[in-house]
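Hi there,

I know you've been waiting on this one. I reran it after we fixed the sequence typo, so this is the corrected version. Both the input and the resulting structure follow.
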Amino acid sequence: MEIQLTGRRALVTGANSGIGRAIAVALGAAGARVGINYLVDPQAAQQVAGAIGAQGGAALPLLADVSDAAQVSRMFGEVEQAWGGIDILVNNAGIDGERAPGWAGTPEAWRRVLEVNLIGAYLCAREALRRMVPQRSGVILNITSVHERIPWSGYSAYTASKAGLGMLTQTLAQEAAPHGVRVLALAPGAVQTAINQAVWSDPAQRADLERKIPLGRLGQPEEIARMATVLVSDAAAYVTGTTVVVDGGMALYPAFMHGG
């Protein structure tokens, strides 16, 4: 089955690198016009736009801090001005913060993770829903994490933000469903991107990580992007209010593969 998004207007936050970049390119390849949100490295955003353009698609780089309501409102206004509205929002922008036990980190650092990962997703979803509900169509896909479910010592802000995003997804889905709008989440596991290069480039750390994955390998950004493309398409028209986990089995408690 070929996924077609021709004519759809999409916005992907944090789309200038990693998983966000792969999703933006995949949506463009499926025919969508894609807004490429970024906060740093405008050259990288232009490169993503160029990659989509090389496939014959249309892309629009958009500078905005998703944790700032005014900047988010302006960004959605730019999308509306360019394309007349929005059909797909992928809330991908996120940070993991500095590793620290809950009693050692600063409230400011903890709060910043939630401002980007959870409040930022809410602000973008709010703007999208204000447009999707009246048109009675649209899809919001929130990128959470296996750490929506799995604790991760040293990263309490990250895990709290992703768990919160999972419940935000369900609540918004319940609210939006009567208006023809779907809201769902995709939870990646360990994916090989620049953000975790220190781990996968070190043989010992990589081997330790891969032991936590029943399929025995890290995922690739393109694998997450392919699933994201399916979920925002009509192929998933009856899917809403749930989290689809794409993790190679990491959430299956792999230590129990060899007995209790």
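Quick highlight: Residues 69 and 123 are 6 Å apart (CA to CA).

Best,
R. S.
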